Protein 1
Amino acid sequence: MPTFTLPTLPDLSPATPVLWRGRVWTGVEDAPLNDGAVLTRAGRIEAVGPATQLAALEDAVTVQTDGTILPGLIDLHVHARPRYLPWFVAAGVTTVRDACNSLETVAALLNPAGLAPRVLPSGPLLDGPDAFFRQFGPGAVHEPGDGQEYSAGALIVRTPAQAERAVAFLADQGVTHLKLYEALAPDVYAAATRAAARLDLPVMTDLGMLTTRGRAAQVDARQALALGVRSIEHASGFALAATRAGFDPAGELSAALLDELAALTVQAGTALVPTLSVFEPLATDTPPDQRDLPLAGQGGPVRESLDAQWHAVHAGTRPIRSLAQADARLAAQLAVRVARLGGRVGAGTDTPAGAFTLPGGGLHAELERLVQAGLTPAQALRAATGTAADILGRADLGRVQPGAVADLLVVAGDPTTDVRATRDVRLVVQGGRPLTPAALRATLEA
């Protein structure tokens, strides 16, 4: 069979056996295989190993990448909309965990009209009567059983019995995980986690940060960890836990307290998704430099709408710059401690709710921020690949291993030594289907 070198590439279907040659990083190990190869066939990875061992496959088209082949990236915290779904794939993000959307929007996300990542939805979040989502208008908040549950971004639950019914309702709608929010009462929160556990439904939770509900939430991180949540988003609830322990989280916290909270997180088996990209843009009056991120220069109505939202958020949060600095510091300090203890740190962006968090491209910025916090490049990469897949409970994602879905990202350079190398996207393979940067740009512009 013929051999091609990128960017030259024939029209290949997912069914075509292809041997992708180059530096291979599996999403699991620290170091890459420098002269490696990945065989994909029928949308799955069939073999991985040294190129010299796999080169004799006579039925495969060979593609020499001259770059690093790694798993398609996973963004663990997004708020997706159909209109910018292609942006994720164009940036090499092939799977997203949606962190809150109405069931009506979820239906559209799961049935996209064109290019889109794999979407794992939570549906509407569960919150208490004093829900933050009320500021988005009466249609954003409903109660289970009021006949308008499908349009709600948040479902209000006031009692443990209501929480159990709401969890059962969402499970019946096919959500892959449950999101619990800031204003839930402790007994209602506990009932929701118990109901989710009975249904084998993982729980992600946002317990509030200093920049949001802060210390006015009812459930702190210690309580959530004791109830077995799968992941804590934004390092939320830890500021409240510090306050209840007699510390001021707006200042410098003691190393002993941070060590204790990180150890509790690891012992509970809970993942931390710190979303550093949410806090850092709010911590300064200067918007972040995004010029070298994938799709940074993409224009059009979608980008204009996002820019208007982000600049409004950034300007409106000027009075809480110091709180954003404290949230960013706490999230980074916890993330590096959890990683050093062998716990799970996941990469999420909160795009586009966080200011200047590009759909798709923002995940590359998050990887660099994780490294700046103290994670190694391999740990940061795993936060968006192998570790992210573990958080999702999906052994078939986030890995370049036999049996996994053939979602691959080819980049120039070696991101295990310089994590910024992920930004130079040379090819995206989605379910075995290769997508060149030129084809991806054409899709976005169309």
Protein 2
Amino acid sequence: MKTNQQLCAVLNLDESEPQLMPLTKRRAVAALPFGSRYRLIDFPLSSLYSAEVNSVAMFVRGSARALMDHVRSGYPWGMESTVGGGLFIHSGAEIKEALERLEPGQISSYYQDQIDFVKHSQKGYVVVMGSKMLCNVDIKGVLRSHIESQADITVVYKNVSRGFCLPDSIDNCLSFEVEGDSKITDLLPANELPKEETKMAIGMGIAIMSSETFIELTTEAANNRIKGDINVLIRYNLKKYTVHGYEYTGYLKNIETVSSYYDANMDLLDEDNYNALFYRSQPVITKVKNGAPTYYSKEANISNSQFASDCVINGTVEDSVVFRKVVIEKNAVIKRSLIMQGSKVAAGAELDYVILDKGVKIGPGVKLSGTKDEPLVIEKGREITVEKES
């Protein structure tokens, strides 16, 4: 089965997560840096690469600059094709929607662009994905299951505990016709589940269907002014289509708050979590950046931490994730923190449960601390030269 001849992908990256601010102030959720050298978008793109999908459309609300700078032509993921493929980025959808005046029978450009892409791709099937559900999914396996089940739509889910989602989460959970069966009868927002339910089958925002079904579903959503991820669109059409579930058993994290983003990075310091996400049968690919190996001086004191290249480490780093081109000076102490690309921590500074966004400069002797549940975020490009007031 040659999936590159059958499958195209629509990446809905208009994910709005206000509880990720200020990390998403200047970037889409998909563009969030992760694991010292990746971005969240690398994971869906890598899954598509392993499934030999070379025709992909991205739909982004707000600023797409950081995302476009990272993915460029899509070359690392095999999408720089001159024959029947390519990476197509649509940004500023909310601006177009605010300005457009629709004629009777006309649908919004957001949905029309998706329909046009799928028609022009000339593929038999469409996979729809997002980026906030951090995972490493075997798309080939999902497509194979979808074809064998003869379902109209196949939705990917994972069985999780109730605490996986926030109490007010609107992420959809699946209900099955019979326990142990794969046929889905309902998709309920997590916050509508009965309180006595301690387990849930959380929809991961990933679905596969035929191109014809996708066009029907999208047209229906446009005509009825339905907005939301693919699970929302499917929920409104459960009586019309046969929907089956595909259980994913690998690592999964819902990146919906600063705390969950922090936790996902910290999870990588556990070897089992790292292997579950990165060392499956398919690789995780990112844009290559050449650089020198990280330098650790004799004064450096390192324990249980992850580093990218091009760093200079002269201080103490414990239980932390450090991105590219970071400088940590002598007698600086970093604990349980994320230090993003290009940041500098001066001598004598102390950080605990802190997230430094890109290019932050921390002055000598500055002491900053948050908590595990509420890590302190320092916005991109800031310079702090005196102790932050509590």
Protein 3
Amino acid sequence: MMEVALAFSVIFCAATLIPLVHCYSNEPREYTNIIPISRRSLLNRRTLAGDFDAVFAREEQQAVYQKYWTMAPEILAGIFPAPENDMEKFVQSKYVNEVSPDTDNIMEQVVGPVDVSNVLLTMSMTDVIVNEVDMLYYGDLAIGTPGQGLTFDIDTGSADLWVPSPWCSTCTKNHYDGSQSSTYVDKGRRFAVSYGSGTVYGTTASDTVAIAGTAVQNQTFGVVYRESEDFQEYPNDGILGMAFGTIAQSRGLTVFETMMKQGKLKWPCFSVHLARSQETGSEASVLELPSESYKHRHWINNVGQMCWGCYDPTKATGPISWFPVSHRAYWSIPMSAFEVAGQRTMFDEVIISAIDTGTTFCYFPASIAAEIYSQIPGSKDASESYGSGFYTYPCASKVDLGFVFGDVAFRLHPDDFNLGESVYNPAECMGGIFAMDATEWPSNLAIIGDEFLKSWYSVYDYSDGGRVGFAPSVNNQ
């Protein structure tokens, strides 16, 4: 009888698009914010043989070193730069104790499809593709009073919001002008952040940030007066960090944490659906981007989505599996093993895996990457051709590869693992896992990027000490 009641409750929630947590409480049912997010897609047609973009891959590999290396040792040891921004006690008192959800039953099942267009506010994500590989996702926000619209890379691997200022000579796209906002406050603190795609410098400010019609007051962010060249090839204006505020360089709360503090959200989680590129999809607009080496075309396909304070059952085809975060800094969860063709190999030590929507590929310590490729028939170390950390495998293979969280293997789609043909041998393709130098990278840290997340609808929950959930994505239907 309980199973029937549970099934009815889940179906009712999905049909009405009420966050399922509320179907297990006595709280009044209210709709929450779903913000569509789009994946930036840069389509790059090369004239050389092969279609693997080695330039981008090398740049991102080096950028990942830069993004994580400074703070990784301290964070892995549990030392946070800004512990005053830890929201755990607030979430426990204001959400968990009041709602009292049964976490073993929440969102055990999802049903669909359901039309969300009339009942949910969505923030679309734009998909950017280089050589048919999804590279980055961004969405729209408005900052100031009146609001100034800008686009932002959605990044669970960092914790700061930053925007370019009118005084930024290296910022080639839209900017935010605090002098035009009646709610702008100059905070006066220096601001600098290194990301996977470059470094920015500026000062801090606060203002109103509007997300799909929901206003967040007094949000602290960086106003940038200098950004590195890495950012100039991408169409987004700034970055929206969605990691824990304990690692925010601004020393302020993240936008999501401020929304929780101000009572804008009914559930302390956000969910991300990353669309897999479809060249035959409708072309909403085309944007030519500057580049010395490539011609880029930017397709906007509003099929990716970010859901603030909620979970959209139309983006998943099965139940959520939950995993507690290792540290309330990055959205990092323990990985115990990997599988190739169903054959499981256990790691000698647990690997802490940072789930990072702002990184395209997957990065492992060199010894782990070598072990993974050793299980893929025909794979080869391609360091001599492409640089340290690169591997190839036979293009004819459909690699059945999965990462083991808990005791469950979560598989990468073979098309996402395949990054394209090698320039040197069209029978060999580049693998989507890159090795990180043992002298410069922690032996127990991996970065799990969009290559994996396109196969899994991911949920990031502040309750229960922080946890990440994966549900099968509709991308794989």
Protein 4
Amino acid sequence: MSSIGSSTSPGTRARDFWRFSRHLITSSPSRFAILIFSTLIVLFTAMLSLPIASATGSITPISDALFTAVSTICVTGLATVDMATHWSPFGHVLIFLGVNIGGMGVLTLASVLGLVISKKLGLRAKLLAAGDSNPLRAHGGVVNEGQTVRLGEVGQLLKTVAMSLLLIELVVAILLYPGLLMAGIPPLAALWEAPYYAAMSFTNTGFAPNATGVVEFADDYFVLTVLMVSVFLGSIGFPVIYTLARHHWHVKRWSLHSKLTLITTVILFVLGAVVFLVLEYNNPRTFGSMDAGDTTFQAFFLSAMTRSGGFSVIEISDLNGSSMLAASMLMFVGGGSASTAGGIKVTTLAVLAIAVWSEARGRQSVEAFGRRIPSDVQRVALSVVAWGATIVALSTIVIAQITKAPISDVLFDVISAFGTVGLSSGLTAELPDSAVYVMAATIFMGRIGTVTLAAAVAATSRSQLYSLPVERPIVG
């Protein structure tokens, strides 16, 4: 009996646990990342269910606690409860901490925790951490030098992630504080709301600490501009911030990833504003009652928020159907890779657009800024779009069947969930529990990312050492 007891002693079980953890990290870091995010969601669900987390001191229903935890950790911003009034100060602090943890990114978080457990990053963990800087790296084969971050820079990247998040949120909070005071917010309340808004904007979450949200700042262009800049920085991604911090305005030294991210982001930002201007200028419920200057500014603000910001000055349900469709398209694209934004990512759209243009011109290779984009990157981009569209389609069908709600409202909220945007037509707050769980799963899939999930599934795939005969099916 003593030998059996000694073999299962606490010390032995602890060593077995750490050995299993190190094996999981080194053998499949992407699966470890998914496990970490799932564990965080379970932990925050339990804490948000506690009576101390609600303003009334009652237990929050498990469906609402789970959805809030998913929306918080996945920095989405959708809610099934009134975020300003339902939660106690303890609950708000939990949500504040959760969005910052989620904002660091699933792969970066997994790499940091893996570093704590295994003491050092192995080669595969380094490859995956580099994959966070550019998800297109999450494939087999040689890692090209031209890609965003070299393996030797991974440690510096991880530091940049944490430091940039803290520093940018601090600067945004300092800028917001006087703006909140001028808006009539009491000094002590503003001392809490400023860092709260800073965290929610930089992480692209969109939660607000007050019942009216940013509507009370509808005429305060300074506060709204600070929020837009913060959302933009969060949506371009940590690798781009890292590149800008190192090379500043030396554009020639920017990576291809950074160039594609910035150019595509700006194009979508301006194009989205123009579309909303054209579609909403005569809508009396939105921009129709504003003058030209207000209409232009609010169109740019709406364009920025539909990319993943989640704040809204107007009621989304008041938009024309055409505008809601345009907003859905922007939300589906999302922000930059390895950013706090969701969606299929702007680099995915850029790669596919360049590939289509190259094919139309009859070019044998896909090239941009003097660099060739390999075919496996193009395949990953196609896979991301296909999987994203599949997730959105299935979720829309299931939720529409459950709720019998108008398909336009269901599609808008589902894409908002997949793109971790946080804007809502008003449907999410009224969902039954079964639909809440489907929406939560959509958020999780959108935040973890289709490339990460594919990498997790393919972690044990074997190389094929032969090729089959070629035969061309008819396409188009």
